[in-house]
Amino acid sequence: MRQGLRIVFEDDWLVVVDKPSGMLSVATDKGHEVTAHSMLRDEFGRIFIVHRLDRDTSGLLVFAKDEETKRALQDNWEEAVQERRYTAILEGSIEDEEGYIETWMYENPRSLMVHCYGLRPGDTPEKPPRKDWKYASSHCRKTREFTIEGKPYTEVEFDLETGRRNQIRVHSQWIGHPIAGDRKYGAQTNPFRRLALHAQGLAFIHPWTGKVMKFSSPLPKSLKTKGKTQI
């Protein structure tokens, strides 16, 4: 499809696409720009978004061809999803090979900024300290380190246990290593001229067939580090 949107899978109920960075998943109230949703609507007619990616995040995105399928997935999304894997390039050098991050998250309704708070002894995911706080947890694994113009970066794979808004971006800031290009959450550099975050792996149970649907998306050229100095 045009403007870099690629169809990865299609059946009678679902369309899975690979969205480029810089494209909205669905329209906002601020304008009528081309979005992943509008492009698929031109292709298929009525189409319903199941989940979203930030404008500057690339990767796998799921749409439903009818409202019943959309509801079936959205109403059971946390149970249906088997894997949500992202690749992010973080500022700085990270010593730990693997890690586990769990926090409370709160989205300010005015600024739309998401904030992290640490868990206290005795806290459980089911009992947040405040009613508008949400539990968020991420597994992370370092895949490689390199430098760009003398500055260190670490490529990390994130596997999400929860799917909160801006979760990886905020968790990266929380551990002191913002995602490259993520000025909103503390990044000081932008070597790739985009947010260095890609939704590379997604697996979920098909709402009607019951089969596990598994998809992957290669790291886009805009995030390739060929020619960079490996650490």
* CATH H-level homologous superfamily name of the largest domain: Pseudouridine synthase
Overall mean confidence score, pLDDT: 93
Q: Give helix and strand order, one letter per element, not per position.
A: EEHEEHHEEEEEHEEE
Report the helical percentage. Answer: 10-25%
Uncertain residue segments: none
Number of domains: 2
Give the N-to-C terminal Cα separation.
Answer: 38 Å
Indicate the radius of gyration in whole angstroms.
Answer: 18 Å
Kindly name the structural category: mainly beta
Shape: globular
> Mind telling me which CATH architecture of the largest domain this is?
2-Layer Sandwich
Just give the CATH class of the largest domain. Answer: Alpha Beta
Helical region count?
A: 4
Indicate the proportion of strand residues: 35-45%
Overview of this protein structure:
With 231 residues, the protein is mainly beta. It folds into two domains: 1-75, Pseudouridine synthase; 82-207, Pseudouridine synthase. 13% of the residues lie in helices and 38% in strands. The chain is built from four helices and twelve strands, in the order E-E-H-E-E-H-H-E-E-E-E-E-H-E-E-E. It has helices at 36-44, 67-74, 77-80, 167-174; strands at residues 6-10, 14-19, 48-49, 58-64, 81-91, 98-107, 114-118, 134-148, 151-160, 197-205, 212-216, 229-230. Strands 1, 2, 3, 4, 5, 6, 7, 8, 9, 10, 11 and 12 form a twelve-stranded mixed beta sheet that branches. The mean pLDDT is 93.
